[in-house]
Design goal:
The complex is a heterodimer of chains A (about 500) and B (about 300). By secondary structure, chain A is of the alpha/beta class. Helix content of chain A is about 40%, strand content about 10%. Chain B is flat. Helices cover about 70% and strands about 0% of the residues of chain B. The chains are: A alpha/beta (about 500), B mainly alpha (about 300). The interface between A and B is large, with 66 and 60 residues.
Chain lengths: ~500, ~300
């Protein structure tokens, strides 16, 4: 489980995590405050509001005006990326310029487990890599006013070139992914490319072409099935929503990015768009032709992906973390080669070209609003976004970053990621994304997730699927307790 | 001694009562208060919203599914476990006939006694993970489907975890499996304390094994059954670990295997709605107390004095 904002919560999240959370429920719902009067819900630390964050003099060398002698407390999520990229690459870059700022480094597997109580108490660390299974819902953090506004960071001059702002060094969409109502709160550092991942070895051995249209896809699937191999897997009972990614991407290529804007803005009828229904019908035809791995609808997602990596199936929808996630299964067979392809075109007269890919910045880093030293935390982010920092990260953890041009000249040895990088470059400006899963977590899962699961089991028709998705969207739209987001394009 | 009595008693009573108040009563009171707010679980502030969370519960279809599943668990798991537990325990202790001893366990009972206890020393998360592979599809390592295939019962093979109607019954089976061992041991202990001569008298009167079980064993261990029944009903109200691990945080396909405990966890940690989660918690508290009281009352029987 690495860099995606579209994380799967595995069915059996490990025992430690949930025991910690159970313990936290105990603490939060009924803590051992000294007396009955003391309360789980924290309560007044209004005096904090008046406190000014410490700062130093703003100068050319210190554009964010950080205090030069205050400590900086950092929490890094110790997951797929580990935490060495922080201690070995980013912190030396930062410390070289700010030798008197002591960095208190922490690594944590369960971020919420360690930090939720500190957020409630109004005493969070300065910098949090809010990621993994224990991620604290960023939308909720923002609407509760617990995150620091990062505008100053993005408007500050970049680490490498004082004439270019940090904003201008980033890939398109990188800041937007962490922006709510026009204010950037989250730095999404890693860049994830989504597409259909396939078994290159099997295609090559059998002379099957990489399909570019849905018709070709169906032809190749027929050949694969005839050879006794399952053409497709998806993430089983855990996360059928992964199939939404090719579904929505193909529909967008057919009809243009406006349909995604309508979906994200919860417009009535957005899910009933003809292009989306056509795409859903194409996905459903995989089930109708028995092109899915037998039993996949009852599998845990890692089992399904593992069978794919072991050559039991050819196509698998996912993001560029897949190669890391299935590294063990992939390593079992040295001849196994995987690659990513953009989702095929449903029709020759599609609005967007084949090369269009869905890509988004992920791996969130935040500065809590109640942080002791928020300016130094932003300075640390600025160091991360330096060319040296981004390159080092790409090399160390095999992931692309949000920094434009940082992966140029870096040889990516992982074949899957290399193909994803090539696909991203080929896409140029034709990069799409949708935000409703991060804006409205419950809408995506279980809402749309269950609808798509039923579609993939062929329990419902395409029209019923569209109606169910529409109902889920309506529920969010009409719930006044949910903060609504909006996108222009 | 007399004049210092009350300070002396108070000095001993205050610490335990204080600890009880802080760690037991105060959380209940706070949970009830939280259930009347929209607290997200992240912030230091929250808005009081009266009974909105309870109104929302009333209209929540998923809550109804969870309630139905909890009802199934509370009714079926204790009955299955008690029947199996009593049966196994009587087989181990009084079910056999051997020369020289009129009342004894079946052959090999000492081995079974240990084997039955195994599930109890395995922690709940491990049981959950193991059983999710018992019921997995065959190509993903599913043990049950493989067994069915091996004995030629291919027609009975199912994608167990993809079938909404099976989910809660799978949980019933797993929970019963993991509970039975403890009750076998509990009932065994109770049966050991039944005087042998009662059995001998029953035998002399020509009582069959089943009649002995029904008319002698069960009445004499009824107190223990009653305790076990209440305890198990409360355990079955929970079912959190089994469901969360086997079926996932959404309660499996279409949420069909959801239970209140998992729903509470999901609302608190996945949806960041501690207010609603606390309301579900209050509902669980009320239901658990109601179930415990019902079972206690319903099972009252006349006590048999053994001595």
């Amino acid at each position: 489980m690495t860099s995606s904002i579209e994380r799967t919560t595995p069915a059996g999240s490990d025992r430690r995590t949930f025991l910690q959370r159970v313990a936290l429920t105990g603490v939060a719902l009924g803590p051992g405050g000294a007396f009955l009067a003391s309360c789980a819900t924290g309560g007044g630390d209004d005096d904090d509001e008046a406190e000014e964050a410490p700062s130093g003099d703003v100068s050319e060398d210190n554009p964010l005006g950080i205090p030069e002698d205050q400590p900086l407390e950092i929490y890094i999520f110790d997951g797929g990326f580990g935490d060495e990229y922080a201690t070995e690459i980013h912190q030396p870059i930062f410390s070289e310029r700010w030798p008197n700022v002591t960095i208190e480094h922490h690594a944590a597997v369960d971020i919420a487990g360690e930090l939720q109580a500190r957020f409630v108490a109004g005493d969070p660390p300065d910098f949090v890599n809010n990621s993994g299974d224990g991620q604290m819902d960023p939308g909720q953090l923002i609407s509760d006013g617990l995150l620091y506004d990062l505008s100053e960071l993005f408007d500050a001059p970049s680490w490498d070139d004082p004439n270019v702002t940090v904003r201008d060094t980033l890939l398109p969409g990188a800041i937007e992914a962490g922006t709510r109502n026009g204010t950037p709160y989250v730095l999404n550092y890693a860049f994830t490319v989504f597409g259909i991942w396939f078994n290159q070895t099997l295609l090559d051995e059998n002379g099957w072409p990489v399909p570019t249209t849905w018709q070709e896809m169906m032809d190749v699937c027929a050949d694969i099935a005839a050879a006794g191999i399952a053409p497709w897997v998806y993430q089983g009972v855990t996360a059928p929503r992964y199939m939404n990614w090719p579904l929505l991407s193909m529909a967008t290529k057919l009809a243009g990015p406006e349909i995604l804007v309508a979906i994200d803005n919860l417009e009535p009828g957005a899910w009933g768009h003809e292009a989306i229904k056509e795409s859903a019908a194409a996905i459903l035809s995989l089930r109708e032709n028995n092109y899915f791995l037998p039993g996949v609808e009852a599998m845990e997602f890692r089992d399904a992906q593992g069978l794919w990596a072991r050559g039991e199936a050819v196509f698998c929808p996912s993001g560029s973390w897949l190669e890391n996630e299935e590294a063990d299964a992939i390593a079992e067979n040295p001849t196994f080669q995987l690659a990513m392809m953009p989702d095929p075109l449903l029709s020759p007269d599609s609005v967007m070209p084949l090369e269009t890919v869905r890509a988004t910045a992920g791996e969130p880093y935040v500065v809590p609003a109640d942080a002791e030293n928020p300016r130094a935390a932003m300075e640390y982010m600025r160091a991360m976004l330096s060319l040296e920092g981004a390159r080092g990260f790409s090399e160390a953890v095999t992931s692309l970053t949000s920094v434009a041009g940082a992966s140029e000249g870096v040889t990516i040895e992982a074949p899957g990621l290399a193909s994803a990088q090539a696909a991203l470059q080929a896409a140029g400006d034709n990069v799409i994304n949708w935000y409703y899963p991060s804006w409205y977590g419950d809408m995506e899962n279980p809402g749309i997730d269950q609808a798509t699961g039923a579609l993939l089991r062929a329990e419902i028709t395409v029209d019923e699927w569209a109606d169910r998705c529409e109902a889920v969207a309506t529920e969010v739209r009409e719930d006044d307790s949910i903060d609504k987001q909006n996108r222009e394009s | 001694m007399r004049h210092g009595k009350y300070p002396f008693i108070l000095a001993f009573l205050l610490p335990p009562v204080g600890i009880y108040a802080i760690y037991m009563l105060s959380p209940y009171v706070q949970a009830i208060y939280i259930s009347l707010t929209d607290w997200s679980g992240l912030s230091a502030t929250q808005t009081f919203i009266g009974f909105d969370n309870y109104v929302e519960m009333w209209n929540d279809d998923q809550l109804r599914t969870a309630l139905r599943n909890n009802a199934i668990l509370v009714l079926v798991v204790p009955i299955l476990t008690l029947l199996l537990g009593l049966f196994f325990a009587s087989m181990l202790n009084v079910g056999g006939r051997r020369r020289g001893a009129a009342v004894t366990g079946v052959r090999g009972s000492s081995i079974y006694q240990v084997v039955y206890f195994f599930p109890l020393v395995v922690s709940a998360p491990i049981i959950g993970i193991v059983f999710s592979y018992v019921f997995a599809p065959e190509n993903a390592g599913g043990i049950l489907n493989r067994l069915l295939g091996a004995v030629g019962l291919d027609s009975l093979q199912q994608l167990w975890l993809a079938e909404q109607n099976w989910l809660i019954w799978i949980v019933v089976i797993v929970m019963t499996w993991s509970f039975v061992g403890f009750y076998v041991v509990l009932f065994s202990a109770a049966m050991q304390s039944i005087p042998r001569d009662i059995y001998e008298a029953a035998l002399l009167d020509g009582s069959s094994r089943f009649t002995t079980f029904r008319k002698v064993t069960v009445p004499l261990v009824w107190d223990t059954v009653q305790v076990g029944w209440v305890y198990m009903a409360i355990q079955a109200m929970d079912a959190f670990a089994t469901v969360h691990i086997m079926l996932g945080i959404n309660g499996g396909v279409e949420g069909a295997g959801d239970v209140l405990g998992v729903m509470m966890y999901r609302e608190a940690f996945s949806s960041n709605d501690f207010g609603y989660a606390a309301a579900i918690g209050v509902l669980m508290l009320v239901l658990t107390m109601a179930v415990a009281m019902l079972f206690m009352r319903g099972l009252r029987r006349e006590r048999v004095e053994l001595a």
